[in-house]
Amino acid sequence: MTATAGEQLRTWRQRRRYSQLQLSAAAEVSAKHLSYVETGRSRPSPEMVVHLCEHLEVPVRARNDILVSAGHAPRFPETLFDPTAHDDLAELLRLVVDGHRYPVLAVDAAWNLL
């Protein structure tokens, strides 16, 4: 079962160690409305989801997940890393790995070794 948008927002709020009151003050929304969003009593608009995610510094992929869970379309494009399309970045990564004194592992957001 996928977590609701409110549950995901609550999880991110707790990860950032905000109380509902602190987040509502920072985001300039009422604490009551934030509580309703988190408990599922109110369905947040896409603008509210993005607004709260910005204040919580939620990664873009997670923002899309929250938007979809709230019944909205994802807003942020997802692109897979293609080393051939990013020659400068791939070269930089090679330099860092080659110059490192200890073993190095690179992982993506899903914890896959690259």
Write up this protein.
The protein is mostly helical and 114 residues long. Helix content is 54%, strand content 0%. It contains 6 helices and no strands. The chain is elongated and about 55 Å long. The two termini are 29 Å apart.
Topology:
Blueprint: H1 5-15, H2 20-27, H3 31-39, H4 46-56, H5 60-69, H6 87-99
Helix pairs in contact: 1-3, 1-4, 1-5
> Looking at the structure, what is the overall shape?
elongated
Low-confidence stretches: none
Instruction: Work out the strand percent.
Output: under 5%
Rounded to the nearest angstrom, the radius of gyration is: 18 Å
Q: Compute the number of strand runs.
A: 0
Query: How is the main sheet built?
Result: none
Overall pLDDT confidence = 88
How many distinct helices?
6
What order do the helices and strands follow? HHHHHH
